[in-house]
Design a protein that fits this description.
55% of the residues lie in helices and 6% in strands. With 139 residues, the protein is mainly α.
């Protein structure tokens, strides 16, 4: 996926907007909240990627608040800011808003991408993204 991001996003041809879709239970909500707390420290993508590396099933204890705080420490985030952010649900509204927006446009699974308003559902090969993005760009 990195080559697609480099060719289209990093080059400025397209914008990537990430929205949470936290519908797999409480741990998915906490993980999304934690990612937003990391975003407040400029480390969203690093935290996001770490979460995907750590996942091993739905609601099996991987994304408890205690573990999410440990992951933040692993990345060197400021614990004095991260922990209260997560414990107080400071970012819950952002996550809820994203999830509700997704539901309103028919998102029922992840990943779901929208390219000029058209959904592209599921993990797709890079060539599919390139084809869809080229078509959207009129190339």
């Amino acid at each position: 996926m990195r080559p697609v991001l480099q060719a289209y996003v990093d080059s400025g041809k397209v914008n990537l907007v990430y929205k949470h879709s936290a519908f797999l239970g409480q741990e998915s909500v906490w993980a999304a909240q934690a990612a937003e707390c990391a975003a407040d420290q400029g480390k969203f993508w690093e935290y996001h990627d770490l979460l995907f590396d750590k996942q091993n099933g739905e609601n099996v204890g991987t994304f408890t608040k205690e573990n999410l705080i440990a992951y933040a420490k692993e990345l060197g985030l400021d614990s004095a800011k991260f922990e209260p952010c997560l414990q107080s649900d400071a970012t819950l509204q952002r996550v809820t808003t994203d999830t509700n927006e997704g539901r309103q446009v028919g998102v029922s699974g992840t990943p779901t991408f929208f390219i000029n308003g058209k959904p592209l559902v599921g993990a797709q090969p890079a060539e599919v993204f390139k084809s869809q993005l080229d078509a959207a760009l009129g190339q």
